[in-house]
Amino acid sequence: MKAFFASLFSFLVLTLIIQAQPTPQKQVINPTLQKTSDFPAGSEILFNESMMLVNARHAAWIKSTAMQVNEKNMSETEVRISATNWAILGSMPEGDIEALCFLVLMQAAKSAQEDLKAIMAKVKAINNAKAQQRENLSEAQQNRTPNALQLDSLKWFISRSRALLAGANPDTVKFRRTGNNSPSSSLSIPASSKKDLDGLVDTMKNDLDSMSEMGDMESRRLQMAMDGMSKMMSTLSNLLKKISDTAQSITQNMK
Predict the structure, then answer these.
(1) Per-domain residue ranges for the chain?
(2) Which residue of 31, 112, 141, 239 is surrounded by the most CB atoms within 10 Å?
(3) What is the rounded distance in angstroms from the CA atom of residue 73 to the CA atom of residue 204?
(4) Residues 6+ positions from 233 with CB-CB distance below 8 Å
(5) In a 3-state reduction of DSSP, which class is residue 195?
């Protein structure tokens, strides 16, 4: 175990040394292959290639600890304590603890990034649903003589809104026709349908209020997630700098 982690930290340092070396010619990068990322430069390559050296037992510990980092909002100090406790079992040196902290926080950051994308997608879906609900509500309030198809459409949009509020996928809600499907039925509707329309309008108003509350809550979650992600990136940058400083020191000694 000791030799394994020594090779891992050495790999991190060696990789940074290689990355710091000047290239003999300018590299042409295909812009279509570039990937936008908020991670510190070089960190993803270090993480992906380092994890290839990690056996199943250590990989499981890194992933489970990373999950705790996100669930408990653990600080860098707490991560370092966990890494130190794990390192003591294998009599690992300080450098290996740095490597452990880096891998755990990178794993946590990757998971947090996926959560952030999910929250952003939900906020977008809520905003789109609110805009559609306002449009439907306005049309329903202006058109007091809707046909059967229009009533069915309103019910469908309401069902989609209810699915979103329940945390389900609105796209799974299927459109259903009720009553007379003939286009001629659109010329007039019975009093019971007008009563249904009033009920649908009230429902849409209530659902719009609920979606606004959900949107506010998700927006706060999004801001908290973005703040947490920014803090995590700062911590990763500091850890990467420590490893980079070691690499630079070795490079200077080689001159």
Answers:
(1) 2-18+41-109+232-254, 121-180+189-224
(2) 239
(3) 38
(4) 38, 39, 40, 109
(5) helix
- Locate 28 and state its tokens: 């042409």
Q: Which residue has the tokens 């990937």?
A: 35
Cα separation, 92 vs 58, in Å, equals: 13
Written as six digits, the tokens of 77 are: 């100090």
Tokens encoding 194: 């007008």
Residue 65: partners with Cβ closer than 8 Å, 6 or more residues away: 79, 82, 83, 86, 104
Among candidates 172, 163, 25, 49, which has minimal Cα distance to 99? Answer: 49
Residue with tokens 């719009």: 208
pLDDT in tens, the chain (255 residues): 444 444 555 556 555 544 554 443 433 333 333 343 478 888 888 888 888 877 888 889 999 999 999 999 999 899 999 988 887 766 666 667 888 888 999 999 999 999 999 999 999 999 999 999 999 899 888 887 777 788 888 889 889 999 998 988 898 988 888 755 544 444 344 444 677 788 889 999 999 999 999 999 999 999 999 999 999 999 988 888 877 776 555 545 544
Q: Helix, strand or coil for residue 198?
A: helix
Beta carbons within 8 Å of 99's beta carbon, 6+ residues apart: 5, 8, 9, 12, 50, 243
Kindly state the DSSP code that residue 42 receives in the 8-state scheme: T
- Long-range CB contact pairs, 142-147, < 8 A, 24+: 144/194, 144/197, 145/188, 145/189, 145/194, 146/189, 146/193, 146/197, 147/183, 147/185, 147/186, 147/187, 147/189
